[in-house]
Amino acid sequence: MSDFYEIPDSYRQRIFKNRWFYDCAVVDRNRVSFVLFDDGPHDNGNRAFGTITFGANANLDGRKYTGFVFPMLGVAPNLGKTSVMLGSIDGVAVHGEGGGEMWPDIPKSPQGPISTGPTNVATIGGKLYVCAGWRHVCYLSDAREWVSIRHNLPDPPNPKKASRFGFEAIAGFGADDIYAAGGEGDLWHFDGKAWRQCQVPANMTMESLCCAGDGNVYVGLQSGGLMRGRGDEWQVIHEDRMTVPFKDIVWYQDQLWCTSEYGLWTVGKDGKLVDADAPALATACSGNLSTADGILMVAGLNGAAIHDGSRWHRLL
After folding, report:
1. What DSSP character marks residue 7?
2. Distance (Å, rounded) from C-alpha 8 to C-alpha 24?
3. Of the candidates 228, 221, 212, 119, the residue with the CA atom closest to the CA atom of residue 172
4. Mean pLDDT, the chain, integer
């Protein structure tokens, strides 16, 4: 009996050979998208962006691109089963039911939708949201337009030190309950109408965000630190001296999962960060995390694995 999440050898040869997972995104439990880089000591600018479908309608559909510096990958459910790859300077590529093509760049201006290149993406309330420097946030509408929700967000108070302010990460419980963070303790909340700056107990660099199933917001801090809270009640629950911060933090099966290229961890109800209780076939793939529709995907330099709600499956 074959594994539901098995990748055929023909797929491996066609697109995965001599490449590694730079990013991943779960579209649903039968479908995942990916961005691959070519193996090698230096980035040659080549990208492979595609989607693999598992099950009775198994299929691999991918395209090759160049450019897309430090790309990021997100899902836009309002456009169907659609994944979107954005370059951190420029470039928009779409894959899935929303199309399989290049789109125009997100417009840039001081008024938005963004003023600099995008820094992170998140699916919130069925739409793809994008955050960027100079405290900009926008989303991809049903009409395939980028709509700014910057509203009352001010410019950074010191333009010469704009990197000390947001945004680098975005997450939300819904369209009227969004958090965006970045810089040194620059955390804001959007209630659907206006933004308000949150008062936090640390000015450490904010790198990642998760609006979790336990009702808390988790903030990934510099050097592998974690902060937990909501509104104006926040607590640093973990400090560390890792050489890199967490790339992704997600909520899955009543736990917070954290990853960087150096490992895979979980946080229990006691707030303690521990090595993930996962087999080597999964922990070896640390680097990126994505969850949706009851499954969790981990992918990185050494391959990819999926947890289907009951057990792990090694993809590559």
Report:
1. P
2. 19
3. 212
4. 95
Percent of the chain with pLDDT over 90: 87
Q: What is the CA radius of gyration of the chain?
A: 19
pLDDT tens by residue, 71-121: 999 999 999 999 999 999 999 999 999 888 899 999 999 999 999 999 999
The secondary structure element, H or E, covering residue 74 is: strand 72-75
Main-chain dihedrals φ then ψ at residue 247, nearest 5 degrees: -75, -45
| Residue tagged 């009409």 (tokens) | 143
* H or E element, residue 283: helix 280-283
Return the amino acid letter for 126.
Answer: G
Nearest-angstrom CA–CA distance, 58 and 63: 17
Length of the chain: 316
Provide the token pair at 53. 């479908």
Omega cis (within 30) before 113: yes
pTM for this one? 0.97
